[in-house]
Amino acid sequence: MAVVEVRANLESKMDQSISAFKNNLSKIRTGRANPALLDSVQVDYYGSMVPLSQVANLSLLDSRTVSVQPWERGMGAKIEKAIRDSDLGLNPSSMGDLIRVPMPVMSEERRKELTKLARSEGEGAKIAVRNIRRDSNESVKKLVKDKLASEDDQKRSEAEIQKITDKYISEIDRLVVAKEQDIMAV
């Protein structure tokens, strides 16, 4: 493995960390409705637990209401029960085949809890990025030890790896700030 491969591997892993972080942020509730909030809901489907998105179509009716359209007639009651039993604090209502899931207005205290959760997700993502940096630096040191790269290459690589790490950490900070503003908007 060459120094160039270490750098490519570093960026690939950091991109994956950012993607996972964005996915985790999308699951944190804001004042507006978002079908991704129901991704964690599991429904009993003929004896096995499956994600809600595999038994129904999720969409937005308006900015505060998610609609759930079951693909099978008998699933409505099970879907309603699964949403009600989830720890999301949602109260779905059935209108024929369509299930409406209104998003309740959040209190100021709940908004602050969610901003703390967003910050902790951000810290987790930063830790993942720093671990990737450490692994990459160790890979470069191993290349130098095995005489596949010079010490000058090592110094340049470590500086470049740090610059890339700083870029990804600032991206994480930017995403956290944006999410906090989204949560605190009434």
From TrEMBL:
Q: Which Pfam families is this protein grouped with?
A: RRF
GO BP terms: namely: cytoplasmic translational termination
Residue runs in coiled coils: none
Q: Which domain of life is it from?
A: Bacteria
Which UniProt keywords are listed? Cytoplasm, Protein biosynthesis
Q: Which GO terms describe its cellular component?
A: cytosol
| Domain Ribosome recycling factor positions | 21-184
MF terms (GO), sorted A to Z? ribosomal large subunit binding
Q: Where's it found, cell-wise? A: Cytoplasm
- Cited SUPFAM superfamilies: Ribosome recycling factor, RRF (SSF55194)
Its biological function? Responsible for the release of ribosomes from messenger RNA at the termination of protein biosynthesis. May increase the efficiency of translation by recycling ribosomes from one round of translation to another.
Name the family: Belongs to the RRF family.
Q: What is this protein called?
A: Ribosome-recycling factor
The uppermost taxa in this organism's lineage are: Bacteria, Pseudomonadati, Pseudomonadota, Betaproteobacteria, Burkholderiales
Q: Which gene encodes it?
A: frr
